[in-house]
Structure formats: C-alpha cells, structure tokens
Design a protein that fits this description.
The chain has about 140 residues and is an alpha+beta fold. It has one domain: Glutaredoxin (3-Layer(aba) Sandwich). The chain is about 20% helix and about 20% strand. It is built from 3 helices and 5 strands, in the order E-H-H-E-E-E-H-E. The chain has a 5-stranded mixed β-sheet with strand order 2-1-3-4-5, covered by helices on one side. Strand 3 and strand 4 form a beta hairpin. The longest helix is centred in the first third of the chain and has 13 residues.
Length: about 140
C-alpha cells in the first residue's frame, strides 16, 4: 500500500448469532459498486474481504486503514442500512491527515459503533527516542474510539 492509498477491509465470515447469513459479502459488493460510481474516491481506496477480524460479537465488522493514519474497526454494519455512512466515512477518512476524528464527527451510526481506533504506527528513526504518546493523534484519550 502506498502512502496515498487507503484500504477498506470487510469481514466476510461475520454472522449474527443463530443465523447462517454472512452480510460481509453483501457489504463488500455494495461498497465496490458505490466506489466505482465515485471515481475520485475509488482512486484513493483498495477494498478487500478478509475471513475474520475478531469482532464476532458485533458483526459485521469493517475496517479503514492507511499508512500513517489511525486505523478504525467498526461493528454492527449491515448491507441494508450502512453503505451510505461507510462511503461518507471513506471520503472523510481519506481527507484527514492523520486519520484521527472524534466520534461526533463521524457519519450516522459510525458515531457509536467503533470497536477500535488504533493509533498510526510511527516508527522512530534509528537512534531517535520515541516521544510519549507519539502517534496517538490529537486529543488521544479524550474521546471514545
């Protein structure tokens, strides 16, 4: 992944308890179609399915990541209700320099369904000491994930 590329990763094995339906494949397909309909956004993203992101209790999970940016993992996503919010967040996330945003700034249900916000990996150069909180982004710890 190059510095200007972003990724959306969708769990394809998530399913609700007591159901055999796996909505991740539908979410993945709908996101692919919506990205193709927005060439400026499609040019910034790679999208892929993966078999598990360990968010089974909050299926279906969708992650956003990019080099030098915070990574987000969202749960409770459905193909019927959340595609527009996921696309809106994709646009927002791609425009954030460090990927950091507080919950109230996210679209729709994504305000309350973050399972994790993982700070960007910032590896210090050889011989340099890491600063406390380096890579945690602005306002670290001041907001829900």
């Amino acid at each position: 992944m190059t510095a200007d590329r972003h990724q959306i990763i969708v769990c394809t094995t998530c399913r609700e308890k007591g159901s055999d339906l796996r909505p991740g494949k539908d979410i993945l397909a709908k996101l692919e179609v919506d990205l193709k309909n927005q060439p400026d956004l499609e040019a910034r993203y790679d999208i892929a399915g993966i078999e598990c992101m360990a968010g089974c209790a909050r299926s279906c999970t969708v992650a956003f990541r990019a080099e030098g940016k915070a990574t987000y993992l969202f749960g409770d996503m459905t193909p019927e209700e959340d595609i527009d919010d996921l696309i809106a967040f994709a646009r927002q996330y791609s425009e954030l320099p460090d990927g950091w945003c507080i919950s109230r700034d996210r679209p729709g249900k994504l305000r309350r369904t973050a399972l994790a916000r993982i700070p960007a990996l910032n590896v210090p150069e050889a011989g340099a000491k890491a600063k406390a909180g380096a890579g945690a982004g602005a306002g670290a710890g001041a907001d829900k994930p």
